[in-house]
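tokens incoming
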């Protein structure tokens, strides 16, 4: 299991409508798999997640293994990126002054887009290349830029009229 963890004041949020998302349905992601994932990414270990959910320790391991195979994730970090791009999960975090703020699906996409831009000083070229390859290999690169594709189609349709 990866040591990927989010800050303790952050909570994973399961999007209520994820079950109706076409990509989630195609992958056959179960609610329990997403619940296990949410607890693991929040920093709970397998035994703690089992206790919280009232299931066996081995069941937690089985759910994580099943989910990771379905989405082709090697670790929690990859799983988070995939599930957030698919809009299955999100994050709420405590901001300045103790106010809780949701890290929306659009926030996730904007963050990924910024990290892939050449002018981003915080991401080196080899990391950008690896991130792009990861999203292309998982069939998610188009999802990150689907708003841009729609904008291009709308511009083309406007020119034709």
């Amino acid at each position: 299991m990866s040591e990927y963890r989010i800050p303790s004041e952050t909570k994973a949020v399961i999007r209520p409508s994820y079950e109706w998302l076409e990509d989630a349905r195609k992958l056959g992601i179960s609610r329990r798999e997403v619940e296990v994932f949410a607890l693991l990414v929040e920093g709970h270990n397998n035994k703690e997640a089992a206790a919280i959910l009232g299931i066996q320790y081995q069941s937690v391991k089985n759910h994580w293994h099943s989910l990771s195979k379905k989405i082709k994730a090697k670790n929690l970090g990859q799983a988070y990126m995939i599930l957030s791009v698919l809009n299955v999960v999100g994050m709420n975090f405590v901001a300045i002054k103790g106010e809780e703020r949701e890290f929306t699906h659009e926030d996730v996409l904007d963050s990924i887009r910024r990290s892939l831009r050449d002018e981003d000083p915080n991401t080196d070229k080899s990391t950008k290349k690896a991130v792009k390859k990861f999203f292309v290999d998982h069939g998610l690169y188009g999802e990150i830029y689907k708003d841009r594709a729609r904008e291009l189609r709308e511009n083309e349709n406007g020119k034709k009229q």
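note: Confidence is low (pLDDT under 50) at residues 1-8.
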